[in-house]
Amino acid sequence: MVGSPWYGPWAVSVLLMSIRIGMVFAMTPILSAMPVPLMVRVLFVLGFSAALVEAIPSAAYRGTVDLTALTTAALIEFSVGVVLGLGVLFAFATFSVAGRILDIQIGFGIGQLFDPATRQNLPLLTGTMSYLAAVCLFSLDVHHTLLRALAYSFEHFPMGMPWAMTDSLPVVLRHVAGVFTLAFALVAPVVACLLLTEFGLVMLARNLPQMNMFALGMPVKVIVGLGALAAWLTGAGEHVSRIFTAVFRSWEALFR
Known about the structure:
Keywords: Cell membrane, Cell projection, Cilium, Flagellum, Membrane, Transmembrane, Transmembrane helix. By secondary structure, this protein is mainly α. The protein has one domain. Helix content is 73%, strand content 2%. It has eight helices and two strands, in the order αααββααααα. The chain has helices at 7-26, 38-55, 67-106, 124-139, 142-156, 169-207, 213-233, 237-254, and strands at 113-115, 120-122. The chain has a two-stranded antiparallel ribbon with strand order 1-2. Strand 1 (113-115) and strand 2 (120-122) form a beta hairpin. Helix 3 (67-106) runs parallel beside helix 6 (169-207). It is elongated and about 80 Å long.
């Protein structure tokens, strides 16, 4: 198959391209957030890779077709896919960190729910914000931007091109630092409302020491926290867009 003059290069290009694309999707919960069978995911990656090879002829593999060269190219595509997938993974992690902040502030951190998608026990708002990230990905048309960015990566970093992972370390570290900043910015108004609620409960406890503030404070913080979160998310589209925009800025910095 490798020695065929037409089918060999095309098949090698599809295979190498599917490694990069497959690692991007494997590193992120885009497909795992939905109950998609494994075979469907594999066929989707192979079909998308074949379409990109036909749509971007310049992205086809131009290197030597032998075992050593193909192994090296596959390892390069694997590492590039991991680094690109980390960018999308950090975007979803931003929502999870924001949910964990709210869980701690509201008091949901003491309870755990089983998430069938990730097979983990997560607090209520942490799991909810993770699903919200998947909803925002498709509702804000970010998935089309993601596919275009993948095509952009093959245009500016062709398959088989030498890749130094150490050069991507500063970009990855900056993105990791931005996760916490963007996560807090996403829920900062809700945290402020909860802080004011805490002050109010403290003042109430000082004036009415006979009241059971634990029994009163928990329902009040739940109502205020969920109400403020629902009101804030209706107009938080710009902040959500900034989270996903940071992904593509980091990708652009990698290939600059």
